[in-house]
Automatic annotation (TrEMBL):
<dbReference type="Pfam" id="PF01266">
    <property type="entry name" value="DAO"/>
</dbReference>
<protein>
    <submittedName>
        <fullName>D-amino acid dehydrogenase</fullName>
    </submittedName>
</protein>
<dbReference type="InterPro" id="IPR006076">
    <property type="entry name" value="FAD-dep_OxRdtase"/>
</dbReference>
<dbReference type="InterPro" id="IPR036188">
    <property type="entry name" value="FAD/NAD-bd_sf"/>
</dbReference>
<feature type="domain" description="FAD dependent oxidoreductase">
    <location>
        <begin position="2"/>
        <end position="397"/>
    </location>
</feature>
<keyword id="KW-0560">Oxidoreductase</keyword>
<comment type="similarity">
    <text>Belongs to the DadA oxidoreductase family.</text>
</comment>
Length: 418
């Protein structure tokens, strides 16, 4: 078949890879000048298979109300002037109950654990490197009540067979020795040994090169203008004045999936949740992180690459505008300097922001639409890097009419109308 993939972020390029592996002719269309130039460019760098948790959870409304009053808040809400922002928030709040949380958690863990296996297979097959490490995630808690609250997440980890270890503050040093000076600030921690790290941008660009070797046609600097369709069937995509025909189409446009598909009458419940990151050059390896650390109080992740530290976090609901705000940089600098004061030079850090495509139930949308040849792989929120290969393989199998290796019937757009 001829297949067009819309979007050359990590979700789109991974989907293209598996379609090429299946023997199809693939064209990838993206408005940027290269792969992974938007949301996949500067994410936190975590492969968080064990730290896969819905944002929509019991207790979140109360926590959010408190966060909004803090100076270094992990959550920022600014009205964007749209009714949809309020509708999406209402949908998300409707998922903040135990039953919905357990359902969504199971779906997310299913994809993440499958993605972990797909990364294992992929690295064995290709040998591709991306500054990756397999040293786990250390989730640190600054307050005793955060340690207590983590017991609920631990119950879920145990239920799904995800390995974990509870740690006292001093025990953190066996995994992150440079935290020695920060021990008085740590009340406890959780270690997730199966998690990994890596540079998503580097991975996606290298994978795009492998796709080209397999015959993929990347159409960069092409902005999608409209989708030609009749009677529940897509015929072509118009991008930058050109018409592209195919037998099947996959939308992997992240936060821009909703506006791109609106003309088809598809209601794709994705909202752009802005995140920020710093990429800090290392000046002292011994004073730097070994793997990835999540500061639960500020919801900030600190991840080690080869000679850089990636610091990422915050969730800002303010529409599609990408603005680098100094106060967000201040928060990221505060957290990394508090935990690793001598590891990197924050004055030379690259400051970045991107739009995470968030669904109201935190679960990506992977699968069919009511158009017989249009499929989705989008809405991964903060876990696009973690779920990338897993959700892409699921999506490619569905496109190819091949039974998926894990359950996928509840991952599609239809779940919102059921």
């Amino acid at each position: 078949m001829r297949v067009i993939v819309l979007g050359a972020g990590v979700a789109g390029v991974c989907t293209a890879w598996y379609l090429l592996e299946a023997g199809h002719e693939v064209t990838i269309i993206d408005r940027a000048g290269a792969a992974a130039e938007e949301t996949s460019f500067g994410n936190a760098g975590q492969l968080s298979y064990g730290y896969t948790t819905p944002w929509a959870a019991p207790g979140i409304p109360k926590k959010a109300a408190k966060w909004l009053l803090k100076k270094h808040s992990p959550l920022i809400f600014r009205p964007d002037g749209s009714l949809y922002q309020l509708q999406w928030l209402k949908q998300m709040l409707a998922n903040c109950n135990h039953d919905s949380y357990n359902l969504n958690k199971e779906r997310m863990v299913r994809i993440s654990e499958y993605s972990r296996e797909m990364f294992r297979r992929f690295e064995a097959q290709t040998g591709l490197t991306f500054e990756g490490r397999q040293k786990g995630t250390l989730q640190i808690f600054r307050q005793p009540h955060e340690v207590e609250a983590a017991e609920k997440d631990i119950e879920v980890l145990a239920a799904y067979g995800v390995p974990y270890q509870r740690l006292k503050a001093e025990e953190c040093l066996q995994y992150e020795p440079a935290l020695k000076g920060a021990l008085p600030k740590i009340a406890g921690a959780l270690h997730l040994p199966n998690d990994g790290t890596g540079d998503c941008h580097l991975f996606t660009q290298k994978l795009a090169a492998l796709c080209v070797e397999k015959g993929a046609d990347f159409q960069f600097n092409h902005t999608i203008e409209r989708i030609e369709h009749t009677n529940g069937h897509v015929h072509a995509v118009y991008a930058s004045g050109q018409r592209f025909e195919a037998d099947r189409f996959v939308c992997a446009l992240g936060s821009f999936s909703r506006p791109a598909l609106a003309e088809l009458g598809l209601d794709v419940p994705i909202y752009p949740v802005k995140g920020y990151s710093l990429t800090v050059p290392i000046v002292d390896e011994a004073a730097s992180p070994v793997s990835t650390i999540i500061d639960e109080t500020y919801k900030v992740a600190i991840t080690r690459f080869d000679q850089r530290i990636r610091v990422g976090g915050m969730a800002e609901l303010s529409g599609y505008q990408i603005t680098l705000k100094p106060e967000r940089r201040e928060t990221l600098e505060m957290v990394v300097n508090d935990l690793y004061p001598n590891g990197g030079n924050v004055s030379r850090a690259l400051f970045w922001s991107g739009l995470r495509p968030m669904t109201p139930d935190s679960t990506p949308i992977v699968g069919k639409t009511r158009f017989d040849n249009l499929f989705l792989n989008t809405g991964h929120g903060t876990l696009g890097w973690t779920m990338s290969l897993g959700s892409a393989k699921i999506a490619a199998d569905i496109v190819c009419d091949v039974p998926t290796e894990v359950r996928s019937d509840d991952l599609g757009l239809a779940r919102y109308s059921a």
